[in-house]
Amino acid sequence: MTDRTENETKVTSADGRDVDRAWEQLAPDYERARTREDSLDRLVEWPAQREILGDVTGRSILDVGCGNGGKLAELVGDGAVSSAGIDNSGNFIDPESHDLQLINADLNELASMRELTGRTFDRIMFLQSFGYATDPVRTLTTARSMLTDDGFILLTRTQPIRYALERAEKNDTSLGEEYFSDSSYTYRSGWNDQIALTKRTYTISNLLNTFSAAGLWIEATVEPQLSEDTARRYPHKQAWMNRYLGILIFKLRPLPERQTAGAQ
After folding, report:
1. Mean pLDDT (whole number) for 176-180
2. Are 61 and 122 in contact (CB under 8 A)?
3. Helix extents (H) in 126-260
4. Quick check: helix, strand or coil at residue 259?
5. Where are the domains of the chain?
6. What is the mean pLDDT of residues 258-262?
7. CATH number of 9-254
8. What are the φ/ψ torsions at residue 64 (nearest 5 degrees)?
9. Backbone angles phi, psi at 179, to 5 degrees
C-alpha cells in the first residue's frame, strides 16, 4: 500500500512556521529563476518535456501546477486548444487566447473543480508539481479519469538520489541510509533563501507503486541531460548534473480495463 503522504511537499517560512498561501511568495522567484540563461529548466528540462508532448496542434492540455501559465501559453501558441492550467499562486500571465484558461486553485482539489467538470484532455502535465499532492494516488487517479481515449500524463520528479546525496553530505551519513530513510527533509529554496521546502522522501519504487496503484503504466521514461555543446557553454551546470543527476520524466497511460470475471 502506498503511503498517502509519501510525496508531500510543504512550504514554510524562514523560521520554520507554516505560511498560508506561501507558494504565492515563492512562485515569482521560481519564474525568474526558470528564465535565467543558465536555467536547467530552459536548457534541458523543458526541451525534453516538449519533445515528449509532440505535436500539440488541436490537442487539449491540462497543466496541473502551472506556475504563471507561461509554458501552457507557449503550447497554446503552438496550436493547443481548450487548455487549462491550475495553480494556487494566482500569479498568472494575462491569457491572450480563448483557448487558455488559468484557474487559481489547489491541485489537491482536482476532483471537485467546477471549471473542469465534465472536461477531458489529450495531455495532462505535472511538471515538478506532483510533490504537492497530499494523496498522490487519488490525484493521479482523478487525472487518469480526465484523459481522452488516446491521452497521456506527462509527469516529472526530481531524481530521489539527489535528495539522498544532499542529506548524506549534510548529515555525514551514507547514500543508502538517506535514500531509504522515511524522515522528511527540509532545505532552503534556491529560488528564495527566506523560504524552506520540506519534502517527504521517496524512492523509485515509491513512484512506480504510486503509478500502478493509480491504474497507470509507463510508456516511456527519460532522464534528460545537457547536450555536449550546452555542457561546454555551462560547465558549472554540467558539474551539478554529474553530481545530482537532474530529473525523471514519465509518460504515463491508463492501464487497459480489466475484463470482468467470466467475460468471453
Report:
1. 92
2. yes
3. 136-145, 160-171, 175-179, 204-213, 228-233, 235-244
4. coil
5. 9-254
6. 40
7. 3.40.50.150
8. -90, 110
9. -60, -40
CA 215 to chain centre: 18
Backbone angles phi, psi at 217, to 5 degrees: -125, 155
Cβ-based neighbour number of residue 179 at 10 Å: 18
User: Residues 252, 156: contact at Cβ < 8 Å?
Assistant: no
Alpha carbon 208 to chain centroid, angstroms: 15
By mean pLDDT, which of 161-175, 193-207, 218-232 is the weakest?
A: 193-207
How far apart (Å, rounded) are the C-alpha atoms in residues 129 and 119?
Answer: 21
Percent of the chain at pLDDT > 70 equals 82
**60 pLDDT higher than 60:** yes
| Cβ atoms within 10 Å, residue 88 | 19
CA nearest to 73, candidates 152, 157, 87: 87
What are 128's three cell numbers? Answer: 515538478
Alpha-helical regions (H) of the chain: 22-34, 40, 46-53, 70-77, 136-145, 160-171, 175-179, 204-213, 228-233, 235-244
Three cell numbers at 262?
A: 467470466
Q: What CA–CA distance (Å, rounded) separates 122 from 62?
A: 8
R_g of the chain computed on alpha carbons: 19
The DSSP symbol for 45 reads I
What burial letters (b/e) apply to 123-144, b meaning 16+ CB within 10 Å?
A: bbbbbbbbbbbbebbbbbbbbb
